[in-house]
Amino acid sequence: MSTIFELVSFKVKDLEKATKLRRDAMEHAKNFKGFVNYRALINTDDQNHFCDLVEWESLEDAQAAAQQVMMIPEFQAMMSEIETVESMKHFSVDKFVK
Questions:
Q1: What is the pLDDT of residue 23?
Q2: Terminal-residue alpha carbon distance, the chain
Q3: Measured over all CA atoms, what is the biggest interatomic distance in the chain, rounded to whole angstroms?
């Protein structure tokens, strides 16, 4: 079975503050069931535009984590720095070339 990728695209209010808060929150993501890895991306044309690419063992693990983050202070702090969420979707891999 293939893993699931969660892609969240969002704009932040303050680049420096949001970057620090996101890095703090990322450390807690490792504790969620089914967590594989977390890539924090920044748009090269607009540094206030972030994307988080999180890999999960299953869609159920990703969905459960999405509910649990609302109760974790570090994620609440990070979310307070989000201006707008452009997209939050889950993807499976169709093909991988290395």
A1: 95
A2: 19
A3: 39
How many Å apart are CA 2 and CA 48, to the nearest integer? 32
Q: Determine the Cα angle at 61 with ends 63 and 88, to 5°.
A: 35
Decide: 87 and 11 in contact? Cβ < 8 Å: no
* Nearest residue to 87 via CA among 59, 50, 37, 46: 50
Residue 36 is which amino acid?
Answer: V
Run means of pLDDT, 10 residues per run, the chain, 98 residues: 93 97 93 96 98 97 93 92 97 93
Q: How far apart are CA 75 and CA 29, in angstroms?
A: 9
**Is 27 buried (19+), middle (13-18) or exposed (0-12) by CB count in 10 A?**
exposed
Closest CA to 23 of 40, 10, 35: 40
Element (H, E) at 63: helix 59-68
The pLDDT score that the predictor gives to residue 70 is 86
